[in-house]
Amino acid sequence: MTCTEAPTAISVSFRPLRPTDHDVLLEAILANVSWYVDLFNDESVAFGRRLASYADLEPENGDFGVLAHIADHWIGVTWLRFFTSADHGYAYVADDVPEMGVCVRKFVRRQGLGRALLTRSLAVAAARDLPGVSIGLPQDSPARSLCERVGFAVHSRSADRLTLLADRRALDAAAAARLR
Ligand SMILES: CC(C)(COP(=O)(O)OP(=O)(O)OC[C@H]1O[C@@H](n2cnc3c(N)ncnc32)[C@H](O)[C@@H]1OP(=O)(O)O)[C@@H](O)C(=O)NCCC(=O)NCCS
């Protein structure tokens, strides 16, 4: 299976993320943090609540995302959420720059789906006239090279985390790539 825009042996469909996809997002968020965070410690309940709040997509606040699925089964997802300087996630840049998360299910990784989801999401951000999109990664994340290939660049770093930013130019380039 490949996930290019051309017809493929197994057909992958894409659609906008909806608030009713809450459980998909929760699963994706847990999958993303479980490999580098100890989920079972004294802070588990508070941390769990915080994670669950990331799955509350609020389209009225501008939040959006893209879901990739085969029939009724989701295989990959992006979610882009707006935060404020007073209350934000791990990749806050500005109130009008959404923080993006991405997760592709393990059995379909390394076949181009992550790239397709990121490019589509940046193109939607361009269509919405946003100034940029940010993403937060652990310093040693293998996802960094993929993000850089679709237009993200390092915006800031802490001891163990990176904030990457796709600026307006990168969004426009993603939109143009979608048209080719
Ligand atoms: C990152 C992620 C979305 C990539 O999805 P994908 O469908 O495999 O992506 P693509 O097939 O389009 O691109 C694969 C590229 O991603 C990079 N990559 C991502 N994860 C990797 C890994 N575990 N090992 C090596 N390379 C990896 C490589 O650059 C790879 O390119 P290559 O196959 O040419 O070497 C997927 O691995 C994932 O869900 N990871 C866990 C969640 C995560 O890290 N999210 C980012 C922070 S929110």
Question: Can you give a write-up of this model?
Answer:
This protein is α+β, with helices and mostly antiparallel strands. It contains 5 helices and 7 strands, in the order E-H-H-E-E-E-H-E-H-E-E-H. It has helices at 22-34, 44-54, 113-127, 143-149, 168-179; strands at residues 13-16, 64-70, 73-81, 99-104, 132-138, 153-157, 161-167. It has a 7-stranded mixed beta sheet, sandwiched between helices. Helix 3 crosses helix 5. The two termini are 21 Å apart. Coenzyme A is lined by residues 32, 101-104, 109-115, 135, 137, 141-143, 145-146.
Using brief descriptors, characterize the structure shown.
5 helices, binds coenzyme A, Aminopeptidase, alpha+beta, about 180 residues, 7-stranded mixed β-sheet
Q: In which order are the strands of the major sheet placed?
A: 1-2-3-4-5-7-6
Query: In CATH terms, what is the fold-level topology?
Result: Aminopeptidase
- Report the top-level CATH class: Alpha Beta
Order of helices and strands: EHHEEEHEHEEH
Please identify, by name, the CATH architecture: 3-Layer(aba) Sandwich
The radius of gyration is 16 Å
Biggest sheet details: 7 strands, mixed
- How many helices in DSSP terms? 5
Beta-strand segment tally:
7
Termini separation (Å)? 21 Å
Shape: globular
What are the SSEs and their pairings?
Blueprint: E1 13-16, H1 22-34, H2 44-54, E2 64-70, E3 73-81, E4 99-104, H3 113-127, E5 132-138, H4 143-149, E6 153-157, E7 161-167, H5 168-179
Parallel strand pairs: 4-5
Antiparallel strand pairs: 1-2, 2-3, 3-4, 5-7, 6-7
Helix pairs in contact: 3-5
Bound molecules: coenzyme A (COA).
